Amino acid sequence: MAAVIYRNDPAYDEAYLAGASVAFGVFDGVHEGHRFIIGEAANTAREEDERSAVITFDIDPDEMFAADKLKKLMTNEARIAKLAELDVDAVVVLPFSREFAAQAPADFLEVCFGGGVPRHIHIGSDFRFGNRAAGNVEDLRAWGAERGMEVHGHELVAERGVPVTSTRIRHLLGEGRSREAAELLGRPYGLSGTVRAGRGEGRDFGFATANLEVPGDMLAIGEGVYACYAVVDGARYKAAVNVGVPATFADEAKENIEVHILDFNENIYGQPIEVEFIEWLRPMRSFDSTEELIATVMGNIAWVRENL
Ligand SMILES: Cc1cc2nc3c(=O)[nH]c(=O)nc-3n(C[C@H](O)[C@H](O)[C@H](O)COP(=O)(O)O)c2cc1C
Ligand SMILES: Nc1ncnc2c1ncn2[C@@H]1O[C@H](COP(=O)(O)OP(=O)(O)OP(=O)(O)O)[C@@H](O)[C@H]1O
Hints:
Blueprint: E1 3-6, E2 21-24, H1 32-48, E3 52-57, H2 62-65, H3 76-84, E4 90-94, H4 98-101, H5 105-113, E5 120-124, H6 137-145, E6 150-154, E7 158-159, E8 162-163, H7 166-174, H8 178-185, E9 189-194, H9 201-205, E10 210-212, E11 224-232, E12 235-243, E13 257-261, E14 272-282, H10 290-307
Parallel strand pairs: 1-4, 2-3, 2-5, 3-4, 5-6
Antiparallel strand pairs: 7-8, 9-14, 10-13, 11-12, 11-14, 12-13
Helix pairs in contact: 7-8
Keywords: ATP-binding, FAD, Flavoprotein, FMN, Kinase, Multifunctional enzyme, Nucleotide-binding, Nucleotidyltransferase, Transferase
Pathway: Cofactor biosynthesis; FMN biosynthesis; FMN from riboflavin (ATP route): step 1/1; Cofactor biosynthesis; FAD biosynthesis; FAD from FMN: step 1/1
Organism: Adlercreutzia mucosicola
């Protein structure tokens, strides 16, 4: 379990990273590729008896530069918490801003490490930094060479010949390919939310649903019906889940995730739950009759009961 240290905390010691072995990046999803380079940073630290750290930002830079098409895999809090579970001494969180990002590559590095230059830095070969992402691994190497920092630029971890990236995982999830996304993440994709009151019809239909309204920039998972696990108060249950505003009730409905938790009958309005997406079952669709909707959803619930 790593310590989480914020650079803008007045108590932060600028020399903290001096001599350390670090991995640097955003790390949305904390996927297999991310864990590989963080593991390499930890290995170097062990071999050389140095401190190990992950350096990341408080927000995802895409929140500033690509907000309209952003589909984050994790909230910033969850990302930092997940990084802190890894086997490193610390997660150092740098404040990200437009001004910070707009600096020329060398200035950007000066701000990041001027007060304490790491001895080793591990990054993937696609690592870019500074204004318009103009800095690359070679620039980092040149900067490091003058300051005693060794740069380890790793070939990207690939699966079926294609690099594992957050972008690739977002595309898979958008197409409902939750199984493949889980392989690249190293765990099922999960989404958290607070349960809101729905229209209350699900209960009359024979399947109560916990409804979540997930903001668009956190809705990486594509529309459809999925076999899932729901985690409520630390307990894990099978669940049948609809993603997308229900097409049959498009005029009245707002919620975009509806979770039927199997063998569960408690009032959880206002409570946080987490949904883990395991298997895509079918596209979401509009039904001509309530009977057909109920029969189809009951079939999905039965599938989850038998197969998960
Ligand atoms: C597993 C599952 C699959 C669903 N599939 C669909 C669907 O394909 N089309 C649709 O319009 N609604 C679908 N729904 C949503 C139901 O229509 C919705 O849960 C119901 O209208 C009750 O809404 P309420 O909880 O807001 O009252 C599905 C719900 C669940 C739990
Ligand atoms: N598959 C991978 N193998 C090794 N290192 C990786 C891999 N993917 C990313 N990295 C490295 O991890 C750090 C964090 O990367 P970043 O947060 O940009 O993730 P990403 O998966 O490349 O995301 P995106 O798809 O949004 O570019 C960077 O140093 C990057 O080069």
